UniProtKB/TrEMBL annotation:
It comes from the Bacteria. Pfam families: NHL. SUPFAM superfamilies: 3-carboxy-cis,cis-mucoante lactonizing enzyme. The keyword Repeat applies. The lineage of its organism: Bacteria, Pseudomonadati, Planctomycetota, Planctomycetia, Pirellulales. This is SMP-30/Gluconolactonase/LRE-like region domain-containing protein. It comes from Roseiconus lacunae. InterPro entries: NHL_repeat, WD40/YVTN_repeat-like_dom_sf. Keywords: Repeat.
Length: 349
């Protein structure tokens, strides 16, 4: 663990790209009337997560480059780099490798400590790593990994850890697990002991939709989990889990959304926004969506209002201190330097 605080940074590398908040002409991305977008960071490789530190710094997982960045005062700087990376898909016929992935998610535990997914490791070897300052991935303090939880031969243990969120009391980090579909898990990290444990199983509750992508505390005693389901199929689902009983309390379908991957609570409201990747294996389709989603108390179909329908592979979103929504998207192409973070202003509860 590093022994210095963020105020003592003296050698953080400033990247060659900068935040472009005011200098680039905004693309409209099929935004609804009253909404505006602007570019914040460009030149990323498969960005996978956006979040904010308690003091308001935008934090981005530049996954394909094996690093986590912070953006402050118009500059993107390396916070932690040197993470392992791996290709998520390899074409069995051609051998073409696709979707280079490293750290897929991060969340700030307090003003100086950040937890980052070591998602470039193999399934069953991935951990959540804690850092008290800038540096290298090897400097982090890891949790345990999670071994196979089923008898399925394809189950190698939990992998592609993503979708981090911090409980209201700051004691637990919730994690979306992407191990074998034989048993889908939302996991939890005890911040004090740094123990990673499977907690909510969709399969044990008879929920057939898998691929949890994001988590979100929903009050002090429950958690929302967003499931993307099968690629290209409108079977996405939000499940409310009770943290004590570990049972599913409510479920909401997401009509009109094919591959939901990220969600964020609209400030000062009980509604959320969801980004829909509209995923494809060989290219980024300019059909990604941003939707405002209201969740009926009884469950069932959510009320979905599409706010944008031409995003470029959105994967994660978070509201910033200024009330704008920050979206990480793959950009015009994956596995290169086309990834970006954009900000959308004008979203109302």
């Amino acid at each position: 663990m590093l022994n210095y605080r963020f105020r003592d940074f003296v050698s953080v590398l400033t990247l060659s790209f900068v935040a472009l908040t005011h200098s680039l002409e905004a693309q409209e991305y099929g935004l609804s009337e009253g909404l505006k977008s602007r570019a914040v960071v460009t030149g990323l490789c498969n960005p996978s997560s956006v979040t904010f530190s308690p003091d308001g710094r935008l934090t981005v997982c530049d996954s394909g480059n094996g690093r986590v960045l912070v953006v402050k005062d118009g500059k993107a700087e390396t916070l932690v780099d040197g993470f392992e990376t791996e290709y998520w898909k390899v074409d069995a016929e051609t051998g073409t490798k696709r979707f280079l992935l490293g750290p897929l998610s991060s969340v700030w535990v307090n003003d100086s400590t950040i937890a980052i997914a070591n998602s470039g490791a193999k399934d069953g070897a991935e951990t959540v790593m804690f850092f008290d300052g800038a540096g290298k991935a090897a400097d982090g303090k890891p949790t345990n990994a999670v071994s196979p939880t089923s008898d399925d031969a394809a189950d190698k243990g939990e992998g592609n850890l993503c979708g981090f969120s911090l409980s209201e009391d700051g004691k637990t980090i919730y994690v979306a697990g992407q191990g074998a579909d034989a048993k889908s898990w939302v996991l939890a990290v005890d911040v004090e002991s740094k123990k990673l444990t499977p907690v909510f199983s969709a399969d044990e509750q008879g929920i057939e939709i898998n691929s949890p992508m994001a988590t979100m505390p929903w009050g002090s005693d429950s958690v929302l989990a967003l499931y993307s389901g099968a690629g290209g199929k409108e079977d996405g689902l939000i499940v409310q889990w009770d943290v004590r009983s570990k049972k599913a309390v409510r479920q909401w379908t997401l009509p009109g959304l094919a591959d939901p991957m990220g969600m964020a609570r609209v400030p000062n409201s009980d509604s959320i926004v969801v980004v829909d990747n509209h995923w494809a294996l060989t290219e980024v389709l300019p059909k990604g969506k941003l939707a405002h989603v209201a969740l009926p108390k009884a469950g069932g179909p959510a009320k979905v209002e599409v706010l944008a329908n031409e995003l470029l592979g959105p994967v994660s979103c978070a509201f910033g201190p200024n009330g704008d929504l920050y979206i990480a998207q793959l950009g015009e192409a994956f596995d290169g330097d086309k990834g970006e973070v954009i900000a959308v202003s004008g979203i109302k509860p």
